[in-house]
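Please complete every field before forwarding. Incomplete forms are returned to the sender.

SECTION A: IDENTIFIERS
Entry label: holo-509
Bound molecule: zinc ion
Molecule representation: SMILES string

SECTION B: INPUTS
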Amino acid sequence: MARKKAVVKVEVAEDSDLSPPPAGLLKEESVVNGAVDEDKSAGRKKRKRTTKVETKDEEVIEEDVKPIVKGKKRRKVEVKGIENVAAEEGDEGDVVEKKVKRKRKTKEEKEAEAMPLAVRTVGHKLYIGAHVSSAGGVHNSVVNSVHIGANAFALFLKSQRKWANPPLAAEALTTFHGNCKSHLYDQAKHVVPHGSYLVNLAHIDKTRTEQAYDSFLDDLQRCEKLGIRLYNFHPGVANSTGGDRQAAIAHLASNLNRAHKATSTVVTLLENMAAGGNVLGSTFEDLRDTIALIDDKGRVGVCLDTCHAFAAGYDFRTPEAFKATVDKFDATVGIKYLRAMHINDSKAPFDSHRDLHANVGTGFLGLRAFHNIVNEPRFQGLPLILETPLESRDENGALLKDEKGKEIEDKGIWAREIKLLESMVGMDTESEDFLKQERALAKRGEPERKRLTDQIEKKREKGEKKAKSPRKRQVVANGKKGKKVESSGENDEAADASLGELSNEDDEV
Ligand SMILES: [Zn+2]
Ligand SMILES: [Zn+2]
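SECTION C: PREDICTED COMPLEX
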């Protein structure tokens, strides 16, 4: 997991709505709401000092947090970036951050990075985008979205892996509104923030539920200030109720009802999950049962993740299977509750209950599944969000690395996936163009599909051996699946920490 830091000098055209300046990624990644993070841990202090040494243009950076205004003149702006920061969960659920230093880039490299990767498609019936970085402040998600040619986007409203966060800064708020307006994003319809991984609204312990509820409510309040109407979150885990699903769902619903009463407009979207076992949202019935207990049905909906659904046993691959899945969703939950989607392929096979996102067409879903998705009239107008990896691979699927042996992150992947998905509307799946792309993408994903198939097979064999021991059989009977959950046994804390990531390599968002 890596942090990239770069200082980029660019020419910014101020007269364009759809071809804006490059990603304005500012300051530190943890300052997602534009305020300075006051975390006093030794590790963070040390890191911040290092940041100061490496960068020296604090005052110029302020340039970029202002709304993009129309005008004909060009100006030079220093844009400093820390992109796609990730963190690793420590044993205690705390965040251990890794630092990677990068040398200053050449003029050519800076100019190449500054160019928008794709021009947004105007007037398309689908609103396709990605979960972009909000490093440096929520307002930066807008320019990051424009940078990849997206017509919708997801973001984190604050650090998704810690409880304490500074409030939304007034400047970030104003700039977010300004950026959405100048770049023509309707944040009420096409922006879908993702909730914190720590929040488990189904946890019945009083202290734990209050902590989760406060963080959740805080996110909803941020949405309302930002003019955002859709908010997506993971329903939770039924461990604290000893696996009693309905009791956990009732607790989740009561928290949602409370949060709806404390706010006025934002619609809370339950995300379907891959894991199975005690993880709520692994079935359409879980979503139905939760919605049934919500007082104000206008304030609840679903964000359907295609990778999660496929891993949970819902197929999308053939037109018939796709129709059966969407019809089942409609019959069980109701299509009117479908308000957003996460458009991911799956590195893990069908019904494997593993949550591993793959690039479009490279996973076990395959390009045909995405052809079905983009041609479904019931999905038109919804925000369709990519949560796919940004790993650069060659045509055979080998990871590309730079001269220092570091993996290369390529945001062009999202730009290309958006264009690919848009282009498949109305496309003939027997055309040479489609077949060629289908073959190329499947080939690129082959090594990862094989790796996961082997891994799952080994795990299954290991599981069968373990199941012979009475103690382990008990764990299986409780329905706990996934690396962390299984190893944590009765440890509720660890089980909750696994809400977003069921193993270290799962890349769920
Ligand atoms: Zn998702
Ligand atoms: Zn998610």
